[in-house]
Amino acid sequence: MAKDECIVECPTGSAEQRFAEGSAGSLIWLSALSLVTFFLFWAAIVHFGLISETLLASPEDVLKTFCSKLNDRAPDGATLGQHFESSLLLALTGYFSAVIIGVPLGLLMGWYRKIDELVRPVFELVRPIPPIAWIPLAILWFGIGLTAKAYIIWLSAFVPSVINSYFGIKLTEPVLINVVRTFGAGKWESFLKVGVPAALPMVFTGLRLSLSSAWMTLVAAELLAATEGLGYMIQMGRTLARPDVIIVGMLTIGFTGALMAFVLEKLESKLAPWRKQ
Amino acid sequence: MRFRRVVSLLVCLVFVVAGCGCGSKETPKADGATINVAHQPYYHGLPSYIAVKKGWDKEAGLKMNIQMYVSGPPQNEALASDKWEVGVYGSVPAMLAALRYGASIIAVSNDESETNDLWVRPDSAILKVKGKNPKYPDIYGSAETLKGKTIMLTTASTGHYAAIATLRAIGVDEKDVKIVHMEQAQAMAAFEAGQGDIVQLWAPFGYIAEGKGWKKISSGQKAGVMIPGLVVASKKAMENPEKVAKWLGLYMQGLQEMKANPAESVKFLADYYKENGQTLDEKALKQEFALRPLFTVKEQIALFERKDGGFSKIEQDMKALADFFVQQGRIKPEEKEKLLRSGLITDRILRLVDAKQQKK
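ok -> structure tokens follow
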């Protein structure tokens, strides 16, 4: 095929690169504007009394509380750093144990029909059960320590890892599989050399969704038993009628999750650079 | 793409507007003939229930719209949204309602000191020592038997208060035990599963614990602290004290009925619990009356009365609770002063009720 007949993907040159970089630059401004607008809107609705301060703390109060919580254990018994450390350990324990099991399981289920038929019925049965419903059993099986709480997070993070890995490998182009088989590769070799790389973009999507689920389940997991943690901090904020404490906890969870998602995105661009934007 | 952004923004705006409760149609508008009352499905809601069952509310021309809440925090959130005018709950959420939302503490529902308690398994070594401190002869345990133990309790609550009072009574430092925060039902489940060494419970969970063969080692009363259940009126409701007094009159009428006719009231309590999804056996129902003293209007006026320029009995009890919360870092010292010196604890409504009762 001649170069001027290429319509699928044009080779990138300096003009395209400059266009792409320019677009990314203007998008960064848009994201910053969106955040600034959000905070201004929040401040305005509290200051103009559209929502009472007893219902929603103002951004200034939240910032004051955030700064004080860096060193002050009041009113929830630990500093923000201590809460963060406890929750990070819990979230990452649940998350990594979920992806270490979920991703390979999803890939194998998607590639080997027998494994799919064996695992899928139980998976589909367990999948819709909300993690919080498992708390009583988690206490019975694992006690009230880190294991029980990490289990709740594991349940939440496990499902997206499995599903996305499963569909990622299922969507491998048949042409690629046929080519590698034609060259004599067996099922396992074609799984490793074609299926897994082809599934990587969806696997990374699954990792991001699992991460998000893990952080979202943190509050529920720390309902089980806690004296530290961002979820515990939010609960104490609720008990003590301190919406500022609640929001500091929520925003800390939000920003941490967003930062970790960003790191995952960078990792994906290294490991799966062929993924189309 | 632009169309999608506009739609997304509109959807966000809709959620924000919906979130501020502008469209809420669930709570009837407060007027002279209706009062929004917040209760929990526990003993201190019974007086209102009896008043409704006996038709006293209709006779008084005041319809009670009773809302049920499972615990203090959601009840306070509803108070912040002006969903109720008068309510009854524990002294911790009542204190926070006063501090955060300007609510007034207007009466006592019952004395809950004995039913904020600590439980162990029947084979616990803690049971081998009793009355270590002669000033607290009914408390089991000592510094030696409690050191290193895990206590499962609901922190920032009256149960936590009772637990710390117990530790202090027998000379145990809080740092020598491990305190794990759990909600009541989960604490019970965990304790039954073999977790922890001591579990802190309040009624009616304590009665269930007793039924399981667990042993009570202490309570707020045994540890020398008074834990009143409290009646609260919202800041807005207090602008119409006659209406609040009308409702409190009905509540006190129900309460006085419970004192005068415990046998019949036990049946009402059984029905009240059943309608709210709980079943207690007769022994537990009778214990509610035996362990949780009630006070008449006159007795309550005496509790609220300041003598010789000092604090009233209720103010002293709330001061002790507030001191605990300040020590734990849950509230600030200036908030404690606000609670005690801003007229948030008042006998104004009780006196109106008493005056009406005198006229009859």
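Residues 20-25 of chain B have pLDDT under 50 and may be disordered.
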